[in-house]
Amino acid sequence: MTAATTPHGAAPAFAAGLVDVADGACAWLQPNGDWGESNAGLILGDDAAALVDTAWDLPRTRQLLADIRRRTDLPLRHLLLTHADGDHANGAQLLPDAELICSEAAAHELDHEDPAALHRAWLGARLLARSGIGAPRRFGAYVDWMLGPFDLRRIELRRPDRTFARDLVIDVGGRDAHLHHLGPAHTAGDAIVHVPSAGTVFTGDLLFVGVTPNSWSGDVDGWRRALDAIADLGAGHLVPGHGPPAGLAELALLDRYWAWLQEHATRLLAAGHSIDETARRLLLGDEFRSAPWGRWACPERTVCTIVSLDRTRRGLPPAISHRERPRVLWKVATLAHRLRLDGHSTDGLQRP
Fold first, then answer.
1. What is the pLDDT of residues 193-215, one digit of tens each?
2. What is the Cα–Cα distance from 183 to 71, expressed in whole angstroms?
3. N or C: which end of the chain has fewer CB within 10 A?
């Protein structure tokens, strides 16, 4: 499948749609991995298949399923969710006959997902973008740009049919799939799906490639331990939650990024700089611009992790709650505007 632009209007940096990763393992890709441009996976057995994650809305999940049907007519016996974020879980209702499996922690987080509320937030943001002034208008424009490509109506979240605490092995048509809960990291419920016979790991959002990650759970140390656990599996093929298929080099690069951000952001925060000033100093500095992650898309999302690092530094739980996320997104939008004014762009987008 090819597309002239990504959902957010950028030129695609890699191929979209269903691609073979290894024998028995496919990735369904949405360039370029920005907000909502998430990936899914397909495991092919002898007489059955399993889907790893869905898309953020029903139209894109229908496209995912149509692409799969062009590839195989094997029944989808299982739907394996790597975590509860809507861009990976919202399409589950379109697979009512597939056994939905996720970690216990992800199942708990599903209780707090509300696509209808997010749709209402988009409607409010669109109004603010059209009628507001100054910073409120810029915030509305950013959220409108972020959510606008996706249809978050008519989504009915499915509850899991089976959960697991740490590890689970399932049989996908004669091919073993190993599920490991490695969170909290990006979220509390992060899990991976390892297919040893295919040398492939579906990492969910524990791995972003060419895209700045955001940490809702705020546990950077936990994220780095999860990356070590993935590396220890020795799989040659990694399907990230966002971005193109990758290998161990990209995994190591993300770990280097976390080490860099944790060290420098914590130092600036401890010196008395605000979250916003810490983010500006880091992202507008020469060291960031010359680093590999200085070319990643969506750099404004760095502020999400800085918020969590500041909470940790002050002895608070690092996770950013759903109630707090609009406040954090305000900071994200403000930083995106500042970066645009400074001419800092990595993805060719005119962000609000």
1. 999 999 999 999 999 999 999 88
2. 32
3. N
Exposed / middle / buried, residue 30 (Cβ in 10 Å: 0-12, 13-18, 19+): buried
In one-letter notation, the amino acid at residue 24 is: G
Q: Over the stretch 8-56, which tens digit does the pLDDT of each residue have?
A: 999 999 999 999 999 999 999 999 999 999 999 999 999 999 999 999 9
Q: What is the sign, positive or negative, of the torsion defined by CA atoms of 38, 182, 291, 142?
A: positive
How many beta carbons lie within 10 A of that of residue 64, not counting itself?
A: 23
Cβ atoms of 257 and 293 closer than 8 Å: yes
Structural contact between residues 46 and 277, judged by C-beta atoms closer than 8 angstroms? no
Dump the DSSP string for 238-283: EEEEESS-B-HHHHHHHHHHHHHHHHHHHHHHHTT--HHHHHHHHH
Q: How far apart are CA 286 and CA 344, in angstroms?
A: 12
Backbone phi, then psi, for 155, in 5-degree steps? Answer: -90, 125
